Every structure is written in C-alpha cells, then in structure tokens.
C-alpha cells in the first residue's frame, strides 16, 4: 500500500518506484518508526483526537508488528515504498479501520525527520560508549608506561625524549574532545520535529511538547519548516565521526611505523595481524591499515551530505533521502573501527628497551645538553653550536652523546664536567620536565589522576 495516490490516474513506472523507494535502507529504523507512532497515538488520544479504545488497539497492533519483526515472523520486504508504509500497511491488515487513523496529524516529512533523529540519537549513545572504552584502555596503558622512555618526534625526526604514557596521553586528549563533541551534538539535536506536518504544522490540536516528553526529547522544535528540512545534526555527527576517524588514522599510522622492522617499538598480537600468501616471514598490521583506509570512507559521507544539502530550498526535498545510506554506512564503519582498534591496542606488546635505545641514539637529549651548558654560564646560542659539533662527532663515531668520553666533551668545551652524563640521561631529561602537560613523572601522575576522575563522569 502507498500512503498517497488519490490524485494519480495510473501506476508509477516500476523503475521510477524502485528509484524512489527507500525501504531497502530505511527499514533500519523500524524500531524508531514504531516507537514514534506509539508516542503519536498516545498524544492523539490525550487530545481527544482518538478514543482510548482506538489508541489501545493501535498500540497493541504496533507492538505486535515490532515483536514479529524482531522474532523474524514478519519479514520487511520491498513491496512497500518505505518503512512507514510497511508498518501502516501491516497495521491496517491486523486491526482494520483504527489502523487508518495512525497517520492523523502528521506527514511522512515529520515522521522521517523523527525516525532519523531517534535513530541518530541512539547511535550517538553507542559511539560514545565505544569512545569511552577506548579512553579507558588508553588510561590503563598510560598508568602502565609512566617510566617507558621513547623518542618524541617532529617532522618524523627524533626530537626530545618523552614517555609512552605522555605519547598515549596526547591521544587521550583527542578522544576526550571527540566524546565532548558527541555530547554537544546530542544536546543540540534533542528536540522533537513530530507534529510539524509536511512543513506548515496541522490544524489538529496536537500537544507537541507531550509527544516530545514521551520520546525523551528536551522539547519540541520551534519552526515547522526547519523541522522537516534540518539535517544539520547529521552533518555535525558525520563531522564528529570524521574527526574520530582522523584521530584513529593518525594513531594507526604510528602503530604501523612502530610495528615496522626499522622501529620495532611494538609487536601486534596475532589475532590482529595477517600474513602474506607468498612471504612466510610477514606479519602485517592489516587492522591498522584498514582503519586508516576507512577514514576516507567516512569523510566521503560527510562531503556527500554537505553537497546534497547545499542548494536545497525550504522545506523538504526528496534529495534528503540520500542522508540515510551514507550515514548508516559511516556509523557502522566508525563503530567497527573503534571496537577493533581498542582490541588491537589492548593486545599489542611494547618493547621498552628498544624504545629507550632509540631515544638515546637519536640525540633526543641534545637540547638538555645545551641547557646544561647554559646553566654553566655559556650563552644559549654558543651552547647550541657546541652541541651541534658534538652531534657531528657522534655521527662520525657512530655513537650517542652518552657514549662520548669526558675528554672529548672538554676538547670542544671546557665547561663540561662529569655530571654531564647524569644531566643527559633519559630519566633526567624526562623527569625534570614537570610543568602540567609535560612528560615528567610527577606531572603525568597528576594528569592520570585527573583522567581517572574524568572517566568517572562519563555516562
């Protein structure tokens, strides 16, 4: 059954029907469609538009359809144009005339706007839960690696020594912001469009605030045209998910590098790696690579919806039907990537000795050596040049600053004393950096304590 057709004199061409139909994908929110309909008829009865008996009959029928869909007794097929007509058709088959009153006071425009909001709201909650799990895992790893020294990088060049806890903490901050964005989007979108009609409301005495309350919204939307034409919340959600994927992708890129033979900082668990069909020695970081690759897929969904919406006049246009498939795909992609990524990092094994040696052999303590000279009365610009000469000597000798003899130090600058070795040790270089946000142990412990308190506040 179509929800329209009275003014048409012949059937729609089958190809046109197929092109126009959305049931192949909007069936995904059958639960939200029925939930919204139950709230709608409850409100209609409260307002005296339906009788109590009609309300109860319709709700019983809707709940029966929901139970049958979820049990598999009722299969959603493509004979109906969309999930709305599917539910209404089967409701009328089951309960007769009262089922024809379900659509009183609403349009498919505000109905689909409601369904998509309810679905998106549920999915935001699920994505938040996955981000929280990732944050919890990162917090655990930070606690475990307070004293795991490694090189920090700029331009992919070894720069200064840090700890693995500090490095992981950078991603903790990123995903913290991601969680906050999801909360913001939820709060901003949490207003009910049902009752807006096609675009200009309805003459029925609806209680839109009551409907909103029944569905857990903060209130009703305040402009019926915007209510059916708004897809800002989807654009925001896709943007937030794109940022999550960008953060996952950056992290994956580092794991791929760290897993390489040249770095050997980590070893991925066999459960999150694959091999080569021809090279028996290979252990490939495929999960990290796929997460990195799927980032573009989520970006594509965001750009597609922005492009779809950019030229649409008010109010509803059929173009907006294109919001669903790409949003559903992006949500599924992000949820899968978050789940797999969290599993991957929770099982991978770090190699602290190799990481510390990499920091030492990469001259990451050169800045601290320059600071040592400054503290012994040498101007920083001169100290910078002196350490540069020492680094050049180390490169020629294929050794680290720690390996030079005191005589070699003094030959270039007499200000060096035996305490230079303590001053440039990885431990000293890291530990004396204790301003908040720095990698020193005391500073990191404060951050980890703050993170623990933060995690307690998450829903």
How would you sum up the global shape? elongated
CATH homologous superfamily (4th level) name of the largest domain: Fumarase/aspartase (Central domain)
Calculate the terminal CA-CA distance, rounded to whole Å. Answer: 43 Å
- Major sheet: order of its strands? 1-2
> What is the CATH-assigned architecture of the largest domain?
Up-down Bundle
What class do helices, strands and sheet pairing give? mainly alpha
Strand percentage lies at: under 5%
Low-confidence stretches: none
The count of strands amounts to 6
CATH names the topology of the largest domain as: Fumarase C, Chain A, domain 2
State the helicity in percent bands: 55-70%
Average pLDDT taken over every residue: 94
CATH classification, class level of the largest domain: Mainly Alpha
Tally of DSSP helical segments: 19
CA radius of gyration: 31 Å
What order do the SSEs take from the amino end to the carboxyl end, as H and E?
Answer: HHHHHHEEHEHEHHEHHEHHHHHHH
Task: Outline the biggest β-sheet.
Answer: 2 strands, antiparallel
Describe the model:
The protein is mainly α and 459 residues long. It has three domains: 14-104, Fumarase C, Chain B, domain 1; 109-140 and 154-357, Fumarase C, Chain A, domain 2 (Up-down Bundle); 361-457, Ribonucleotide Reductase Protein R1, domain 1, CATH 1.10.40.30. 62% of the residues lie in helices and 5% in strands. It has 19 helices and six strands. The strands form three sheets. Strands 1-2 form a two-stranded antiparallel sheet. Strands 3-4 form a two-stranded parallel ribbon. A two-stranded antiparallel ribbon has the order 5-6. Helix 8 (208-214) links the parallel strand 3 and strand 4 (219-220). Helix 4 (52-71) packs across helix 5 (83-95), helix 10 (232-259) packs antiparallel against helix 11 (286-309) and helix 11 runs antiparallel to helix 12 (323-347). The longest helix is centred in the first third of the chain and has 37 residues, at 108-144. It is elongated, with a radius of gyration of 31 Å. The model has no long low-confidence stretch (mean pLDDT 94).
